[in-house]
Design goal:
This protein is of the alpha+beta class. The chain has helices spanning 21-33, 71-90, 109-121, 131-137, 157-168, 212-219, 292-299, 302-323, 325-333, 388-404, and strands at 12-17, 39-43, 59-60, 94-96, 99-103, 126-130, 145-149, 153-155, 171-174, 178-184, 188-193, 198-206, 226-232, 235-237, 246-249, 261-264, 270-273, 277-278, 344-346, 350-356, 367-371, 374-379. The strands form 4 sheets. Strands 1, 2, 9, 10, 11, 12, 21 and 22 form an 8-stranded mixed β-sheet that branches. The protein has an 8-stranded mixed β-sheet with strand order 6-7-5-15-16-17-14-19, sandwiched between helices.
Length: 406
């Protein structure tokens, strides 16, 4: 006797969870690489790019900071050029402004010189500047030395996300919060949303950002990391004429954060920030937003405690700048002496979805893992918006290989 399995009515071929720029870039890449592939995107918010994509400083990063050969280095360098081209093609606001990375203390000079070397290894043109040459670019900025990185720019990443959604041809379902996943390797995945809709697909792609580890566990895969949310707080400069372009401090290589920097956006305003403080919720955009279950989840992860013990001094400084405008102003004045507390106007904060391993290490590269019929993007904070087009192609490639094998 031969048993015949009834044919499953799949709603789509690939189901993407997450309507940020990485999820939408993945949908775009799938339909470009394999026309006719049915793609559905589930996004819990009423529109695209409501979290990391829409709450960053809008910088198209050059890739100078990242370890040569890493995904961040390769995808940021490639992605920066592609992002400028994409914006130009679709009429999305953007500008290639260049930026300064400025050393204000002597102990920062070796790290600045190391960045010059790293930039050259990553194929990025860099110009070294002395104290007087800084004035050519930023008359109000003070430093001992600096480097100018010409390929850095700014753009409207929310506009990019909207265009990716439209051009992908995918079905985008907003207000679709995922609550349950049934993954069966021999069949596919079934996902139920809070509205009790069920979507059946052959392959699932997890681009859930702040919730990517939770989605991985719902799928039945162990991500071997946890998202620890860090809030980045910003001010807007009341006197934007003090800054012409983008000005960054020399970052500490022990951390994935770039420090408080000055960013003239495409709207002409200048944002200052962010700092990096632990958030009390995955969407904890202020100290008043507390979700006890999410805090408990962070505290239950051994890596969170090990990270805190290792980096408490750095964290204490960030906390001080969060609760004290004077301390934040002091940090800014290292780069921009003319600024005072009255020049800083609070504006919207963002939250970085930082993957932390069990040993307390902060994952410093993009992290993509696979499970049966599932691809998980588990670490994609900055410069993921810059690198979103190459990231999307890589995730799409993996999903299509998986789709061809089932």
């Amino acid at each position: 006797m031969v048993q015949v399995r009834p044919e499953i009515a799949y709603d789509c071929d690939v189901l993407v969870i997450g309507g940020g720029i990485v999820g939408l870039s993945t949908a775009f890449a799938i339909t470009r690489a394999a026309p006719g592939t049915r793609v559905t995107v589930l996004e819990k918010e009423p529109g695209p790019a409501r979290h990391q994509t829409g709450r960053n400083s809008g910088v198209i990063h050059s890739g100078i900071y990242y370890r040569p050969g890493s995904l961040k280095a390769r995808y940021a360098v490639r992605g920066a050029a592609e992002m400028v081209k994409f914006c130009a093609e679709y009429g999305i606001a953007h500008a290639v402004t260049g930026k300064l990375i400025v050393a204000t203390e002597r102990e920062e000079l070796p790290r600045l010189h190391a960045l010059v070397q790293r930039g050259r290894e990553n194929g990025i043109p860099v110009r070294e500047l002395g104290t007087t040459q800084i004035d050519e670019y930023e008359p109000e900025v003070r430093g001992l030395a600096a480097i100018h990185v010409g390929t850095t720019g700014v753009c409207d990443f929310v506009g990019v996300a909207r265009q990716l959604a439209e051009a992908s041809g995918a079905e985008i379902r907003y207000g679709a919060r995922v609550e349950w996943i049934d993954r069966r390797p021999e069949l596919g995945v079934a996902v139920r949303t809070r509205a009790a809709d069920v979507v059946r697909a052959r392959v699932l792609v997890n681009c859930a950002g702040l919730y990517c580890d939770e989605v991985a566990r719902l799928t039945g895969d162990d991500p071997e990391m946890r998202i620890v949310p860090f809030r980045g707080e910003y001010y807007e400069l009341a006197r934007p004429d003090l800054v012409r372009g983008l000005v960054y401090p020399v970052p500490d290589p022990a951390f994935p954060f770039l420090g408080v920097h000055l960013t003239r956006g495409i709207d002409g305003g200048v944002h200052i920030g962010p700092n990096a403080v632990p958030a009390l919720a995955r969407e904890g955009y202020g100290w008043g937003v507390v979700r006890p279950r999410e805090v408990a989840g962070t505290l239950a992860w051994p890596g969170a405690w090990r990270m805190a013990r290792r980096h408490w001094r750095y964290g204490a400084g960030e906390m001080r700048r969060s609760v004290s405008k004077g301390a934040f102003t002091k940090a800014v004045r290292r780069l921009l002496p003319a600024v005072g507390p009255d020049d800083l106007v609070p504006t919207d904060a963002g939250v970085r979805a930082q993957a932390v391993l069990r040993d307390g290490s902060l994952v410093d590269d993009f992290l993509i893992k696979e499970g049966p019929r599932a691809v998980h993007v588990l670490n994609a904070p900055s410069p993921a918006a810059t690198a979103s087009l190459p990231i999307g192609r890589e995730v799409a490639r993996r999903a299509l290989v998986m789709l061809g094998a089932v």
